[in-house]
């Protein structure tokens, strides 16, 4: 049984790009019989950038509701909030004391943020972000960590910290995790054609009320080919987004309409909007259910937190024993 672990950012309400690029693939992976997935909301990490409490609470709930809406099996897998399992921060401190400062100074993610914001606004939390991430992983003896390319260095740091700890005590206290980097580069275009991203404000929030969702879909950028003229579907964002959600038959159908002419971008957008509503009807309903029923959402998360703590506390006991804190 491979233990797969990944941290989920809680920096906003998940959009179609997050769902197709990360959430659905992770849920598919968790369904394979030989896998057991550990998925947690990295809400402590979000504190390095987001300081507002109510916003954080809202984002955490929306992220949790999205994963549950898309059918994550919380019985088979473990799903929790990092902040509710204090062993994450405890282990992070121990690991801090085994992490060379130059290694952190060399982290690309840190250097990029400092370059953007200036050294003055870089907190110690931002600096030690990779150590908390290492703690997240090592706490659960994870074998495989599926992450994006930008996280490759953080995984290398995790392995370095773990192996120098193991080496120092001549013990196998920590399991060395492997990164699984998805190279297939599933980039979902946003409504302006750039990569769909919260920071570009070009995302499609599939959980919006129907009329607001339609307004967003109507804003998808298209060229000025007249209604009557045939159109090239492969150059059009609406068609690209439609293709990511529709069945093969529906895609072939829309392709024919583009190429035949007398089919406008407005028509295509209406079809895309209708498809989103139709295709994600269950998910939209479940998302709203969890957003409206905080008790149900809490029950799921707290059950996950209990499972996570049972494992985390065993690892911490092992570490305390090694360090003489027991
Ligand atoms: N840093 C990761 C990201 O930005 C999120 C994360 C936190 C994570 N802890 C983790 C990912 C542990 C994998 C394993 O996406």
From TrEMBL:
Ligand binding (ATP): 9-11, 17-18, 148-150, 188, 195-199
UniProt GO cellular component terms: cytosol
One protein family per Pfam: tRNA-synt_1b
GO molecular function: ATP binding; tryptophan-tRNA ligase activity
Database matches in CDD domains: TrpRS_core (cd00806)
Function: Catalyzes the attachment of tryptophan to tRNA(Trp).
Name listed for the protein in its UniProt record: Tryptophan--tRNA ligase
Organism: Fibrisoma limi BUZ 3
Gene name of the record: trpS
């Amino acid at each position: 049984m491979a233990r797969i672990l990944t941290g989920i950012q809680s920096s906003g309400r998940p959009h179609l790009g997050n769902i197709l690029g990360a959430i659905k693939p992770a849920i598919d992976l968790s369904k394979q019989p030989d896998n057991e997935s550990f998925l947690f909301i990295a809400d402590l990490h979000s504190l390095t950038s987001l300081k507002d409490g109510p916003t954080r609470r809202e984002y955490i709930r929306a992220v949790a509701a999205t994963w549950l809406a898309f059918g994550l099996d919380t019985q088979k897998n473990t799903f929790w909030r990092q902040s509710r399992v204090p062993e994450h921060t405890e282990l992070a401190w121990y690991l801090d004391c085994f992490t060379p400062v130059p290694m952190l100074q060399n982290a690309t993610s840190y250097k990029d943020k400092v370059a953007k914001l200036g050294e003055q606004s870089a907190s110690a939390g931002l600096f030690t972000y990779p150590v908390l991430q290492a703690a997240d992983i090592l706490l659960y003896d994870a074998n495989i960590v599926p992450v994006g390319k930008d996280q490759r260095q953080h995984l290398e740091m995790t392995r370095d910290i773990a192996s120098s700890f193991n080496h120092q005590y001549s013990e196998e206290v920590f399991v060395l995790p492997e990164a699984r980097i998805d190279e297939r580069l599933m980039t979902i275009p946003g409504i302006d054609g750039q990569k769909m991203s919260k920071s570009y404000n070009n995302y499609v929030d599939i959980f919006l009320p129907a009329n607001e969702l339609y307004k967003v879909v109507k804003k998808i950028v298209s060229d000025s080919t007249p209604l009557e003229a045939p159109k090239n579907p492969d150059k059009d964002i609406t068609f690209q987004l439609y293709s990511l959600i529709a069945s093969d038959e529906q895609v072939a159908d829309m392709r024919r309409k583009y190429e035949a002419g007398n089919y406008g971008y407005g028509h295509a957008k209406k079809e895309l909007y209708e498809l989103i509503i139709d295709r994600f009807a269950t998910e939209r309903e479940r998302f709203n259910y969890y957003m409206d029923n905080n008790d149900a959402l809490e029950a799921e998360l707290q059950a996950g937190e209990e499972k996570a703590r049972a494992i985390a506390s065993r690892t911490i006991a092992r570490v305390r024993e090694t360090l003489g804190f027991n």
